[in-house]
Amino acid sequence: MGQTGQPRRWRSSTVILGGMGLLATALTSCGSEPDKRCVDPNSYDVSKGYKVLDSKACKDNKGGGGAGGAGGRWYYGADRTNGYADRGTFTKSQAVNRGGFGCSGSHSVGG
Asked: Which residue ranges make up each domain of the chain?
């Protein structure tokens, strides 16, 4: 029946599943996507930043922006205050290199 004094042996499936759970937690705890906001690229105000738009403006426009205010562009790693975003970048790779993974603050994605 039960042997006393011997360490408990773990089943390999238990160890594998536990390891997978830890790996999944580590990978998802800090998202791989930098924080982003949809902004009007032609609305920059020196004291406020770019006006934040609804995320549909970037999805419908494919994030291309364009001349004449023809839609929004994704603005990465920005601070948002009162409907404006500032101190970010329009280049996703720059936001990732600057540490814009969303682990250091509580930002939401979208507009």
From this structure: 36-95
